[in-house]
Design a protein that fits this description.
- This protein is mostly helical.
- The protein is built from seven helices and no strands.
- Helix 2 runs antiparallel to helix 4.
- The longest helix is centred in the last third of the chain and has 17 residues.
- The N and C termini lie far apart (about 25 Å).
């Protein structure tokens, strides 16, 4: 069953615990670029790193995270972010225990810093 948009927005606002500046700074770090699956193109960028750039743009357009101010074009990516974060947080305790783990670094690419949770 597909979640309604309001639920996706609420969960996104709860799971993405980094602001646009924190996430943007993280994405510039070498550790960020090496965490996750590589895209199937020539860029070498990971899927999570690309996702992080998209999250930064969403948060810059709506820094207050007002549910009424998200664009309907944001919702599909917000849905992916929620699914990724929930799945990985349920499967991997290592992310909270070890901030240097690939799990923790990957979650940060998706806007969730497990050390803040």
């Amino acid at each position: 069953m597909v979640k309604d948009d309001q639920t996706v927005i609420e969960e996104f606002n709860g799971l993405v615990n980094m602001d646009s500046g924190e996430l943007e700074d993280w994405l510039k770090e070498e550790d960020s670029a090496g965490a996750g699956w590589k895209k199937a193109d020539e860029t070498g960028e990971t899927i999570g790193h690309e996702s992080g750039r998209m999250i930064v743009e969403i948060l810059k357009r709506n820094p207050s995270r007002d549910p009424e101010k998200y664009d309907e074009d944001d919702i599909p990516h917000m849905r992916k972010v929620v699914a990724y974060c929930k799945r990985h947080l349920a499967q991997e305790d290592k992310a909270k225990q070890d901030p240097e783990s690939k799990s923790a670094k990957s979650l940060k690419n998706w806007g969730h810093n497990p050390q803040k949770a």
